[in-house]
Design a protein that fits this description.
By secondary structure, the chain is of the alpha/beta class. It folds into 4 domains: 1-130 and 259-280, no CATH class; 134-257, Arc Repressor Mutant, subunit A (Orthogonal Bundle), CATH 1.10.10; 294-351; 377-519, Restriction Endonuclease, CATH 3.40.91. 46% of the residues lie in helices and 8% in strands. It has 22 helices and 10 strands. It has helices at 17-27, 37-49, 64-75, 92-98, 103-113, 136-144, 154-164, 170-186, 195-198, 212-227, 246-254, 266-273, 294-310, 320-330, 334-344, 351-360, 368-381, 424-435, 462-473, 482-494, 499-505, 514-519, and strands spanning 79-81, 88-90, 231-233, 239-241, 386-389, 399-403, 408-414, 448-455, 476-481, 510-511. A 6-stranded mixed sheet has the order 5-6-7-8-9-10, with helices on both faces. Strands 1-2 form a two-stranded antiparallel sheet. Helix 13 packs across helix 14. It is globular. The two termini are 49 Å apart. The model has no long low-confidence stretch (mean pLDDT 92).
Length: 522
C-alpha cells in the first residue's frame, strides 16, 4: 500500500495527453481492453510511432508500457472501462480534448478535481492508503495562497506535504503549515527518525536514498500544477502562484465542491469525475452498440493526425494548408480530409498549441528563437496579420506585423522571462534601432502604430518604462503577458474583431490587463 500522495507518470508533462488520447481513440476505443494482449501491443506500437514512447526492444512483449499510459489517462478521468461490455470509452473530458477544446482548460478542470480516494488510487497495483481524503492540487493552491507559506519547494512537497496532508480539515491544514515551517528552519532533522520505514517506495525501503521516490512524485506534482498555468517555479525553483492568477486562484478556493462519491464503482466514478467544463453531468447513453465502419476508422486517423499538428502550430481555421498537411500525413484524399476537418473542427484548435506557447515564454534566452517563431505563427494564423520574423537580421525587433486592413504596422519583442523589466540597454535599442531604425528592416509605407513586449510576466516598473519609451518616440507601446496573449487568441477565435480594435489593445502605453481585452469584447 502506498503511504503518500501518488500520481502515475509515464510522462511527467501533460502536454502529450492529446496525442496519447488520439492513439487510444485510433487503436483501443470501443474495444475490450482488459486481457487483450494484442490490443495492448498495437497501442504500444502506436505510441512509439507517434514518438510518445521511446522505441526499443520491449522487455516482456506483453504491452505493459501501453497499460501504463492507459492508467495515466484513467487517473485524470479521461477514459474508463464500460461495466457491462468491458470496452474502453472516453469520458466527456476525454471527448472535449478530442474535439479540439483547450487541453489546458480541460485538464485544469480535472487536476483541480483530482482526489484521494479515487477509482485509480484504489485500483489493484496502486492502492494509495485510505487515510488520505484530500484533493491534493486544491490543497497545494491553498498553501501557496497563504501568507505564512507563499512558496513551496520540492523538498517541502515530497518530505512533508504528500506524507502528512491527509485531509482538508483546518486542523490538518494548520498542522501541515507548522511542519513546513519547521522543515524550513531545521531541514531533514525535522523529519521523524523512522521516516524511511513509514514512507517506503513501491519497491521497498531504500536506506541509501530514502527520499528519492517521494521527490520524484513531488516533481511530477509540481509539473502538473504548472500545466494549469496557475503557478510556476521561478529561477530559485520554488513554486509560487503567478501574480496574474492570484484572483483566479482566490475564486477557485472560495468554492468548495463536494468530493466525488463511490470511488469503488469504476464506471460511475470515472463518468462523474470526467465531466468537462461545459457540462454539469454525463447523461450519455453508451449502452447502444455501434458498428465500426471503414469511414469511422479513416475519420479517426484524420482526427489523430490533426491533433498532433495542433500541438505544434496554432490552427484557427481549416484552410488548404492544413488540409494538405493532414492528407500528406494520412494518405487520405484531400476532399475527404477537408470534409472531416470541417465536420469535427470547424473553428480549428488553437488551445492545444497554447500550452506549449506558455512554456516557451519562461525558457530564457536559450530557446528565444523558438518563442519568436511561435509568435509569428500566432499572429499569422490566429489574428490574420502578415507577420515576419525579422530578429535574425540584427539590431531589429523579433517580429514585424503588417495590417493592410488596419493600415498600420507594429513591432514585437519577445522576452522569455517570468519578470521582465526593460534595462537601459534594451530601452536604447528599442528607441534607436527598432523604432527610429524601422526603414532598415521594413521598406513599405504602413505607419508604425505600436511597439510591444511579450513575456511570461513583468516586473513592477514595466508601466513606467513603457510610458517613457512612448513619450520619447511618440509611438504608442505596451507589454502583454503570455497569459493575456493566450486569452486574447482564444477569445479572438470565438469572437474576431477588426485589426484597429487589436491596435487599441497594443497602444495603451503600459501593461495590457484583462479589462483591456474585455473592453474590446474579447
Amino acid at each position: 500500500m502506498i503511504n503518500n500522495w501518488w500520481v502515475t507518470r509515464p510522462k511527467r508533462k501533460l502536454n502529450s495527453i492529446p496525442e496519447t488520447l488520439a492513439a487510444v481513440a485510433q487503436i483501443a476505443l470501443n474495444q475490450e481492453w482488459q486481457g487483450q494482449r494484442g490490443t495492448h501491443l498495437d497501442f504500444e506500437a502506436a505510441l512509439e510511432e507517434s514518438s510518445l514512447k521511446r522505441t526499443g526492444e520491449r522487455r516482456d512483449r506483453r504491452g505493459g508500457g501501453g497499460r501504463t499510459y492507459i492508467a495515466w489517462l484513467k487517473s485524470l478521468g479521461l477514459i474508463f472501462d464500460q461495466e457491462n461490455t468491458g470496452k474502453l470509452k472516453l469520458t466527456l473530458a476525454g471527448e472535449a480534448i478530442m474535439a479540439g477544446d483547450s487541453p489546458v482548460s480541460v485538464l485544469t478542470h480535472q487536476i483541480l478535481k483530482y482526489q484521494f480516494p479515487s477509482s485509480y488510487s484504489l485500483s489493484k497495483g496502486v492502492q494509495v492508503n485510505e487515510r488520505f481524503r484530500i484533493r491534493p492540487f486544491r490543497f497545494l493552491l491553498r498553501l501557496l495562497a497563504d501568507s505564512r507559506v507563499e512558496y513551496l519547494t520540492k523538498n517541502e512537497i515530497g518530505k512533508v506535504i504528500i506524507v502528512e496532508a491527509e485531509n482538508e480539515s483546518d486542523r490538518c491544514y494548520n498542522h501541515v503549515i507548522e511542519r513546513i515551517l519547521a522543515y524550513r528552519h531545521c531541514g531533514d532533522t525535522a523529519l521523524s527518525d523512522n521516516f524511511a520505514q513509514k514512507y517506503p517506495s513501491s519497491k521497498g525501503i531504500n536506506e541509501e536514498n530514502p527520499y528519492g521516490n517521494l521527490l520524484d512524485v513531488a516533481n511530477t506534482i509540481q509539473i502538473w500544477l504548472e500545466y494549469t498555468q496557475l503557478a510556476k517555479r521561478g529561477d530559485d525553483r520554488n513554486l509560487r502562484i503567478l501574480p496574474e492568477k492570484a484572483n483566479e486562484v482566490a475564486k477557485i478556493l472560495s468554492e468548495n465542491p463536494a468530493f466525488i462519491d463511490r470511488p469503488n464503482s469504476h464506471e460511475y466514478y470515472q463518468r462523474k469525475y470526467g465531466v468537462d467544463p461545459k457540462h454539469k453531468k454525463d447523461i450519455r447513453n453508451l449502452s447502444d452498440s455501434q458498428t465500426v465502419t471503414d469511414r469511422m476508422i479513416i475519420e479517426q486517423k484524420i482526427k489523430s493526425a490533426f491533433i498532433g499538428e495542433s500541438l505544434r502550430t496554432p490552427i484557427a481555421k481549416i484552410n488548404s494548408a492544413i488540409v494538405n498537411r493532414i492528407a500528406e500525413i494520412t494518405g487520405v484524399e484531400t476532399s475527404f480530409v477537408e470534409e472531416t476537418l470541417r465536420k469535427f473542427y470547424p473553428r480549428g484548435a488553437v488551445g492545444a498549441f497554447m500550452s506549449e506557447y506558455f512554456e516557451m515564454s519562461f525558457r530564457g534566452r536559450d530557446n528565444a528563437a523558438e518563442f519568436e517563431l511561435a509568435t509569428v505563427e500566432l499572429f499569422k494564423s490566429v489574428f490574420g496579420f502578415e507577420a515576419h520574423h525579422v530578429g535574425p537580421i540584427g539590431l531589429t525587433p523579433d517580429v514585424l506585423l503588417l495590417s493592410d486592413a488596419g493600415e498600420f504596422c507594429g513591432i514585437i519583442d519577445n522576452k522569455a522571462y517570468s519578470k521582465y523589466t526593460i534595462s537601459n540597454d534594451h530601452r536604447n535599442r528599442m528607441i534607436t534601432n527598432y523604432i527610429s531604425g524601422l526603414r532598415t528592416y521594413y521598406s513599405g509605407n504602413l505607419p508604425l502604430s505600436f511597439f510591444s513586449y511579450i513575456a511570461g510576466g513583468f516586473g513592477a516598473t514595466i508601466d513606467a518604462q513603457i510610458a517613457d519609451i512612448a513619450r520619447t518616440t511618440s509611438v504608442h507601446g505596451s507589454a502583454i503577458s503570455v497569459h493575456n496573449i493566450i486569452r486574447l487568441a482564444e477569445g479572438y477565435v470565438s469572437s474576431p474583431v477588426q485589426h484597429y480594435k487589436l491596435k487599441e489593445i497594443f497602444t495603451v502605453d503600459r501593461q495590457v490587463l484583462l479589462p483591456d481585452l474585455e473592453r474590446q469584447h474579447i
